[in-house]
Amino acid sequence: SSSSAASDVYKRQPYSSEKLLKIISDILKIEVQKKAETPEPVQHPESLYTLTEIKSFAGEDQAALNSILSVFMESTRASFQALELAHKKGDYEQVSAIAHKMLPMFRQLKTQSIIGQLQILERSGPAEIAKVDLDSLSAEVRHLLETLSREIKD
User: Fold this and answer.
1) Which residues of 131-140 are buried (b: 16+ CB within 10 A; e: fewer)?
2) pLDDT in tens, 13-27
3) Residue 43: φ, ψ to 5°
4) Neighbour tally for 65: CB within 10 Å
5) Cα–Cα distance between 19 and 41 in angstroms, integer?
6) Confidence band for 102, pLDDT divided at 50, 70 and 90
7) CA pair distance 47, 51, nearest whole angstrom
8) Are 48 and 147 in contact, with CB atoms under 8 Å apart?
9) Residues contacting residue 69 through CB under 8 Å, at least 6 positions apart
10) What's the rounded mean pLDDT across residues 85-106?
11) Among residues 72, 81, 84, 55, which one has the least CA distance to residue 144?
C-alpha cells in the first residue's frame, strides 16, 4: 500500500533531490520530467565575481548588461567616496547606511570578501567599524571595478 511504502521511504534518509523525486513519482504513480541541469555559474577573473544573476536580468542583451555594469560602477565609486568621508568624520550611522545601500549589488555579483566587509560596516558599532581596513577594502573595490570595466563590450 502507498502508506506503508511512504513510511518505509521515510525511515531511510537522506536522499538526493533526484532520488526523492523518483520516490514521490513512484508513490503517486506519475511520471516526472527531469529538469535540464543548469550550468555552473561562470566565475570571472580570480573568482572575484559572477555575472550570472545580472545576466538573468539582461538576458543576451549586451547593451543592457553594459548599462547595468556602468551604473553599478558609477554608483559604487560615489558611494565608496561618501563611505570613506563618513568613516573619516566618525559618522558611523552614515557608514552603516551607505554600506547597507551598497550590499545588494555586491551580493548579486557574489563578491564574498567585499560583502563580508560591507556587512561589518553595515551592522557594527564604532569599535568594530574601526577595525575594517578601509584602504584594503578600497583597493579591492577599485580592482573589482577595473575588472568589471573590461566586461563592457561594444
Assistant:
1) ebebeebeeb
2) 555 666 666 777 778
3) -90, 140
4) 19
5) 24
6) very high
7) 11
8) yes
9) 54, 148, 149, 151, 152
10) 95
11) 72
- State the DSSP code for 90: T
Res 80: pLDDT: 96
Q: Which of 99, 82, 76, 85 is nearest to 147 (CA)?
A: 76
**Per-residue cell: 28:** 503517486
pLDDT of 65-93, one tens digit each? 999 999 999 999 999 999 999 999 999 99
Q: Are 43 and 151 in contact (CB under 8 A)?
A: no
Q: What is the pTM (predicted TM-score) of this model? A: 0.67
Q: How far apart are the first and last CA of the chain?
A: 63
Kindly state the cell numbers that stand for 125. 558599532
| Residue 147 CB contacts under 8 Å (≥ 6 apart), including other chains | 44, 45, 48, 49
